[in-house]
Write a structure and sequence with these properties.
Helix content: 40-55%
Radius of gyration: 33 Å
CATH topology of the largest domain: Aspartate Aminotransferase, domain 2
CATH architecture of the largest domain: 3-Layer(aba) Sandwich
Number of domains: 3
CATH class of the largest domain: Alpha Beta
Strand content: 5-15%
Number of strands: 15
Shape: globular
Largest sheet: 7 strands, mixed
Structural class: alpha/beta
Distance between the termini: 96 Å
Length: 559
């Protein structure tokens, strides 16, 4: 006590009860409170610097103790009365309150730009029979109804999931034995034998050491890529990658560089500059380095140059990551994707492959292909694998059965390739059409992409790709969540007019390129996509192509 009281100026009288209380406090802190000596040292220093503060703090502490001890406690009877008062409403009164309650809207109407509400009305709603070659559909909340529409907007390229009785029988049997949900993440209790069987089937079919399943294909890249990257690593990506890859790159925390779309000279110059920069900085730890691209590009339908990519990755010591959502099951003689298309070994040319089971394989979910170490690492480090529910068992059996069919009979892949080339040749052979639109896709892509020519767009809609990207970048930097450009919107309305005219006049469903401007971080323009599936006939594709071309010519020439 002497050591404490010595710090007080002699001019400040201290009441005896305060001294006694303070002595008790110090004794308790020293003997009964772990780390209490730290509090005492703080009090000593505070008291030495400002004695008045010690008195005020001690008075506040005593006031709090007295207030707490003097506060009346609620009896059980008081609590029971409060509970009865709370539940005193009659059933009719409760029902009335429920009827009057209006839940808050998930999306505020004010966030939807008035001029863009037409997009919601144009979304097709398929009937209960699913997405097949011919379907029934409605639009604009049932105000528009269409029967036996020829579907040229599907990504289910092989069409085996509904044309093969083997697969439908397997699905029915699996649902009977396993039910319709996994009810848990893979690492806990979600995975069953069919999940591990599919991982083995995928790795065996595509010629790699391992595969890792995911519940949603859109989240594969956004979860798997960050599992292999940290801040300071380097990613070089094609500047026309899809939205799912853009999200993955943002989440990776790595330093990002973009090269010109499918331009191997641009890529090599960038790789060389990066390596020179790393060498000059003499970093203690060499960062991981990745090249990221797509096999069959979702926004253009052209194909990555795998031979050159593989050559550059070895030359500059980068790892190659390829997103093959649209190319697996499509490219190559047996549907094994980009590596088979170029007659290359996947394990030697591509380090990590992202794939989807919701496109050519007609199921749902996604997967990652690679070596066994990469696969094991995802099982313990990838968020979507560790924390998302596993796929329902029947969805895995669809893919396993599809791979089994493709091993013994690749006629669906061959048929798809023939129809893809037929569709492409029909559009490319029209000289009149080339005045208005440009075909972006490769002849081997089952999805044909076309967009307005740059000069035609600038003349009729008064903007260029560069101007759109510049405006978009400025608004994104300023944090705008609603992106609206009159010129862009006018072009979208015109393209939708083409889609509507094809549907109303020829009963054919095609679609605009679906773009969410507020999420896009790379240059992209509006366009139209037309797809074929393996269950179509040459006559159907040829006749439909003629009808679409005729519609495009009529509407473009009328501008």
């Amino acid at each position: 006590m002497d050591s404490v009281s010595q710090g007080l100026p002699k001019s400040i009288p201290i009441p005896a009860f305060l001294v006694n209380s303070f002595s008790l406090f110090i004794y308790t802190m020293n003997n009964y409170v772990p780390g209490g000596y730290l509090v005492i040292e703080y009090v000593k220093k505070s008291h030495h610097d400002d004695p008045y503060r010690t008195i005020v703090e001690l008075l506040l502490f005593l006031y709090g103790v007295v207030y707490y001890l003097s506060k009346p406690k609620q009896s059980k009877k008081t609590l029971q009365n409060s509970k009865e008062k709370y539940n005193s409403l009659s059933k009719n009164e409760i029902d009335m309150l429920i009827d009057e309650w209006t839940p808050e809207a998930i999306v505020d109407d004010s966030e939807i730009v008035e001029e863009s509400k037409w997009r919601l009305a144009k979304i097709p709603v398929m009937d209960s029979n699913g997405i097949k070659k011919y379907l029934n559909m409605t639009r604009d909340e049932g105000k528009e109804s269409y029967k036996n529409v020829f579907n040229m907007s599907s990504n289910n390229s092989l069409a085996l999931s509904y044309t093969s009785k083997e697969i439908t029988d397997e699905v029915n049997k699996t649902i009977k034995n396993y039910g319709v949900g996994a009810c848990g993440p893979a690492g806990f209790y979600g995975n069953q034998d069919v999940h591990y069987r599919l991982e083995y089937d995928l790795s065996e079919f595509f010629g790699v050491e391992g595969a890792c399943l995911y519940g949603q294909d859109f989240c594969v890249a956004a979860s798997a890529l960050p599992a292999f990257n940290k801040r300071g690593d380097i990613i070089v990506a094609d500047n026309q990658i899809s939205l799912s890859l853009q999200n993955a790159l943002q989440l990776s925390r790595s330093t990002l560089y973009y090269y010109e779309h499918n331009n191997m000279e641009s890529l090599e110059n960038l790789l060389k500059d990066i390596n020179d920069s790393i060498a000059s900085e003499k970093l203690p730890d060499i960062p991981r380095k990745f090249i990221v691209t797509e096999g069959l590009f979702a926004n253009s339908g052209d194909i990555a140059n795998l031979p050159e990519l593989a050559k550059l990755k070895y030359k500059y010591k980068f790892r190659l990551v390829v997103e093959e959502t649209l190319s697996l099951g499509v490219l190559g003689a047996t549907g094994r994707g980009l590596s088979e298309f170029y007659k290359m070994n996947r394990a030697n040319s591509i380090d990590i492959t992202f794939g989807s089971m919701a496109t050519a394989f007609g199921s749902s979910g996604g997967f990652v292909l690679g070596d066994r170490h990469m696969t094991f690492h995802q099982h313990i480090s990838s968020n979507a694998y560790c924390f998302s529910a596993s796929l329902p068992a029947y969805t895995t059996r669809i893919v396993s059965k599809t791979l089994e069919i493709l091993r013994r009979d690749n006629s669906s892949v061959s048929k798809l390739n023939e129809l893809s080339k037929l569709l492409h040749s029909k559009f490319m052979s029209s000289d009149e059409l080339s005045k208005y639109v440009i075909i972006k896709s490769n002849e081997n892509s089952p999805i044909l992409h076309f967009e307005l020519r740059a000069d035609f767009r600038e003349k009729n809609f008064e903007y260029t790709k560069e101007q759109l990207y510049e405006k978009l970048s400025i608004l994104q930097r300023r944090g705008f969540t609603t992106m609206f450009f009159d010129e862009y919107e006018d072009e979208e309305v015109f393209l939708q007019k083409i889609v509507d005219s094809v549907l109303e006049n020829f009963n054919i469903l095609i679609s605009r390129r679906q773009i969410m401007l507020k999420h896009e971080t790379l240059p992209i323009l509006p366009g139209i996509r037309v797809s074929v599936t393996a269950d179509m006939t040459s006559e159907e594709v040829s006749t439909s192509a003629d009808s679409i071309i005729q519609t495009v010519l009529e509407l473009c020439s009328s501008l």
